[in-house]
Amino acid sequence: SANQPGSGVGRLGLAPADKPVLRLAGVERRYVQGERTLDVLRGAELEIRAGEIVALIAPSGAGKSTLLQLAGLLERPDGGEVFLSGRAAGKLDDAERTAIRRLEIGFVYQFHHLLPEFTALENVMLPQMIRGLDGKTASERAKELLSYMKLGERVGHRPSELSGGEQQRVAIARAVANAPRLLLADEPTGNLDPKTAHYVFDALSALVRASGLAALIATHNMDLAERMDRRITLEEGKVVEM
Ligand code: ADP
Ligand code: MG
């Protein structure tokens, strides 16, 4: 129904389900660094459909984080267009962009950015409360997600009382708390040892598979990338399939 998260909000209306969840068309992004201009993205093209997990693998400085920030509507491109479920982001005002970001996109970073004074449960409840859900509903969904991430016994712990892998699993649960269409992860296991990285990735992909969302995951971990549906890289500012 139109009240479900992920199906649009207010005058954004329902997003067509047949469109790719994310499409980049001729996306350009440049940074001015003192005297010189750095062209990071030079006409990037990309399509990701619901249910796909795509690995973004490229050396440091290639533009992975830049691409994720543009896809997540945290930045605006200097050229080209970002489409989310068929809607051109450039045509949306700030309020509409914020609504899409809150309701349709989940973010996971290398460092968890959990709120230290809140428990795991409260961290996963918070985005739902901001969206306007009542505490009981938010708490039930948070518990469900945390048990799915095998953190059922840890819901009352603060981030400082959790291991690195557990903190990342809470961050993943939080990222999908509002049932987004798109999950953007920027080196989500980059701070973890290989064994923990695998465990966290398994939990992440199970959750992505179960919820049918699209995921774009920047990683340096080739083992993990091998297990995703597709692998892309950045070459001279363009997306190249591997
Ligand atoms: P990656 O995530 O692949 O390491 P980034 O997207 O972070 O790459 O950065 C790509 C390039 O753009 C780097 O050379 C970086 O220094 C530069 N860059 C990124 N963000 C900014 C910014 N806000 N201002 C200036 N230069 C930036
Ligand atoms: Mg980066």
From TrEMBL:
UniProt KW keywords: ATP-binding, Cell inner membrane, Cell membrane, Membrane, Nucleotide-binding, Translocase, Transport
Molecular function per GO: ATP binding; ATP hydrolysis activity; transmembrane transporter activity
Protein's name according to its UniProt entry: ABC transporter ATP-binding protein
Methyltransferase among keywords: no
Gene3D superfamilies: P-loop containing nucleotide triphosphate hydrolases
PROSITE patterns tied to this protein: ABC_TRANSPORTER_1 (PS00211), ABC_TRANSPORTER_2 (PS50893)
Domain ABC transporter: 22-242
GO CC aspect terms: membrane protein complex; plasma membrane
Range of residues in the leader sequence: none
PANTHER family per UniProt: IMPORT ATP-BINDING PROTEIN, LIPOPROTEIN-RELEASING SYSTEM ATP-BINDING PROTEIN LOLD
Domain of life: Bacteria
Family affiliation: Belongs to the ABC transporter superfamily. Macrolide exporter (TC 3.A.1.122) family.
Biological process, per Gene Ontology: lipoprotein localization to outer membrane; protein localization to outer membrane
